[in-house]
């Protein structure tokens, strides 16, 4: 075993620690006994240099712009596989056979309904309630409908718990959205696949599927289903990001898995994380015209101004975000089919063009991230911006629940309880 020695230059005392070798990525110094050995804490706000767990789910190489789920490249998963296949992969470790996929798909369709009692919860929310608030509350409420102890030795039991939440999240999100408009809910349709079902629950008129309108036109185009399915895949997991860290933190206290997910939803809402997709479009609308872009770029660079370009920068990706690259490709592909050539898109293109060639952004390695492109595509899918982050939630739920299971099965897991550098009275 390779080791690393830490020397305290005040006392001359040395402490030796094992270096753990990952299958990919940086080596990790195992400092678990550091406090017991030295009486000192380590200081790392934002966990920029801390591996908080061991994981086999997702791998990111931030320098190369590489993202893999269970070892498979995101580019292949996004272009050759459906979101449901990706869910199965994350949860089970390998892609499904045809039969496994059929059974999984069927189960996800069957579990999409919400208990009637839960419908009443939505009525308590005001008109115009942000769907993220309703969604988080709805998922917490689900914990009370399925308040069973999850036995991690019983694979069927924990998979059922995971399938249920993946299946119900789109229904809760669509109901939250319709509640915010004050219009009746559309129940899930067992004849529809995961993504089409969600779009239908969002868009359909009361009472029916409405896949064909009165003029015989498709209400939901195949290309829209494919685009949204890809967006779900790109959001499915992202190793130890802020909301997943919250999910694991809540898991560490022994709380119900759906409460952990509800906490992840709350963490995702902020605009430094999943809320950025809504903020990107709000910011493009605020900028208003291509002529104003230069002024806003100046503001983003001004250290005295807290204005930041939404959809730019990432803690881990320092060359490009592979998810953003895939979405940019999808955006170009969809341009003609979905009427993407709007004023908003012109502003977005101008921002991208200037920022990618500007010393400030180059020096700090700030590139467009997934949220920069997803907003423009979701707008073209006629999805209102308040639903962008709920869509991130739908995609990410499989990642959260898979990470929850991994955390629970890991014998090294402990309650999340960091210490502090106290500087008060
Ligand atoms: N616009 C202008 N300057 C920026 C931006 C930005 N979007 N992002 C970072 N910077 C600057 C920052 O001011 C700092 O400059 P300096 O070194 O002079 O003080 C430097 O770049 C490093 O920034 P940081 O805040 O220390 O970096 P971080 O790793 O802590 O934060 C981030 C990462 C994503 C929170 C941040 O880049 C940001 O706020 N971006 C905008 C919000 C956004 O798009 N979030 C979505 C992230 S991707 C989706 C997801 O996975 O959640």
From TrEMBL:
Q: Which GO terms describe its biological process?
A: tricarboxylic acid cycle
Q: Which GO terms describe its molecular function?
A: citrate synthase activity
Q: Which InterPro entries match?
A: Citrate_synth-like_lrg_a-sub, Citrate_synth-like_sm_a-sub, Citrate_synthase, Citrate_synthase_AS, Citrate_synthase_bac-typ, Citrate_synthase_sf, Citrate_synthase_typ-I
Q: Does the keyword Transferase apply?
A: yes
Instruction: Classify the source by domain of life.
Output: Bacteria
Q: What CDD domains is this protein classified in?
A: EcCS_like
Q: Which UniProt keywords apply?
A: Acyltransferase, Transferase, Tricarboxylic acid cycle
Q: What is the name attached to this protein's record?
A: Citrate synthase
């Amino acid at each position: 075993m390779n080791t690393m020695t830490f020397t305290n230059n005040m006392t001359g005392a040395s402490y030796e620690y094992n270096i753990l070798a990952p299958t990919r990525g940086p080596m990790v110094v195992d400092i678990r006994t550091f406090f017991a050995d030295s009486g000192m804490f380590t200081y790392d706000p934002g966990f920029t240099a801390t591996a908080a767990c061991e994981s086999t789910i997702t791998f990111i190489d931030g320098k190369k712009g590489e993202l893999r789920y269970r070892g498979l490249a995101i580019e292949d998963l996004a272009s050759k596989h459906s979101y449901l296949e990706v869910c199965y992969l994350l949860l089970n470790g390998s892609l499904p056979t045809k039969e496994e996929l059929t059974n999984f798909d069927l189960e996800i369709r069957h579990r999409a309904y919400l208990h009637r009692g839960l419908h009443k919860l939505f009525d308590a929310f005001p008109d115009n309630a942000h769907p993220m608030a309703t969604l988080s509350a709805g998922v917490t409420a689900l914990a009370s409908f399925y308040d069973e102890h999850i036995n991690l030795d019983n694979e069927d039991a924990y998979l059922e718990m995971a399938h249920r939440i993946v299946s119900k999240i789109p229904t809760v999100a669509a109901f939250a959205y319709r509640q915010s408009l004050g219009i009746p809910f559309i129940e899930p349709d067992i004849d529809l696949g995961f993504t089409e079902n969600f779009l239908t629950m969002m868009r359909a008129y009361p009472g029916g599927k409405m896949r064909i309108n009165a003029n015989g036109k498709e209400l939901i185009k195949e290309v829209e289903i494919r685009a949204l399915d890809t967006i779900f895949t790109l959001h499915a997991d992202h190793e130890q990001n802020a909301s997943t860290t919250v999910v694991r933190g809540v898991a560490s206290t022994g709380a119900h898995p759906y409460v952990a997910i509800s906490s992840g939803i709350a963490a995702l809402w902020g605009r430094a994380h999943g809320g950025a997709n809504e903020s990107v479009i709000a910011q493009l609308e605020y900028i208003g015209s291509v002529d104003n872009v230069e002024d806003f770029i100046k503001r983003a660079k001004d250290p005295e101004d807290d204005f930041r370009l939404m959809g730019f920068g990432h803690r881990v990706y320092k060359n490009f975000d592979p998810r953003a690259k895939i979405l940019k490709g999808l955006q170009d592909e969809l341009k003609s089919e979905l009427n993407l050539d709007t004023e908003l898109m012109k502003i977005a293109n101008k921002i991208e063009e200037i920022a990618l060639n500007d010393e400030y952004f180059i020096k700090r390695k700030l590139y467009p991230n997934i949220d920069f492109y997803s907003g423009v595509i979701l707008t073209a899918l006629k999805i209102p911006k308040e639903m962008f982050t709920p869509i991130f939630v739908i995609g990410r739920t499989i990642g959260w629940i898979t990470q929850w299971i991994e955390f629970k099965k890991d014998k090294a897991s402990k309650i999340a309880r960091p210490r502090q550098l106290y500087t008060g009275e």
